[in-house]
Amino acid sequence: MNISLFLGVISILVDIILLILIITLYRKIQVLTPKKVDFLINELNEIKGLYGKLEDILKERVEVTKSISEKEPEKERRDSDTIKDKVLDLYKKGLEISEIATVTSLSQGEIELLLAISNSSKNKIEIN
After folding, report:
1. pLDDT tens-digit readout, 50-76
2. Rounded to two decimals, what is the model's pTM?
3. Domains: count for the chain
4. Taking the CA of residue 99 as centre, how many other CA atoms within 13 Å lie in the half-sphere pointing to its CB?
C-alpha cells in the first residue's frame, strides 16, 4: 500500500505542476493582444523590406568592387611600368641611387630592387 500511496502523491504533484504550467501559458497568451500581434507583424514586414534593401546595396557594392578590382591591376601595372622606366632613365643619365630615390620618392632599397630586376630581365644595366 505504501507504493500505491506514493504513486498517488506523485500523480497529484504532476497534475498540480501541469495545472500551473497551463495557467502560466494562458497568462502569456493573454499578453499578446491582437493589437500587439499586428504591431509585431508590421515590424517584421518593415525588417523584411530593410533586409531586401540591404541585400540590394550589398550586391551593388560587390559588383562595384569586382569592377574596380578588375581595373586596378591594369592601372598598377601602368604606374609601376612608368616608375620603373623613370628609375631606369634617371640611372642611365648617371644619377646616383640616392638622387633617384629623392626624385622618385622611393627608398634606396626600392631603387636597387628595380634596377636589379631590370638587370636580370634585360642584362643591360650595371648597378654601382
Report:
1. 888 988 888 888 887 777 666 655 555
2. 0.37
3. 2
4. 9
> Per-residue pLDDT tens for 74-119?
555 556 668 888 888 889 988 889 888 888 889 999 999 989 888 7
**Residue 40 cell numbers, joined:** 509585431
Other C-beta atoms closer than 10 Å to the C-beta of 4 total 8
Residue 18 sits in which domain range?
1-31
Q: Are residues 84 and 114 in contact, defined by beta-carbon separation less than 8 angstroms?
A: yes
In degrees rounded to 5, what are phi and psi of residue 96?
-75, 160
Helix or strand (DSSP H, E) at 25: helix 2-31
- The Cα 128–Cα 112 span in angstroms is 10
Query: Which of 65, 43, 62 has the alpha carbon at shortest distance from 54?
Result: 62
Q: CA-CA distance, 123 to 14, in Å (whole number)? A: 93
Q: What is the DSSP string of 73-100?
A: HHHHHHHHHHHHHHHHHHHHTT--HHHH
Rounded to whole angstroms, the Cα distance separating 26 from 34 reads: 15
Question: Domain check: are 69 and 98 in the same one?
Answer: yes
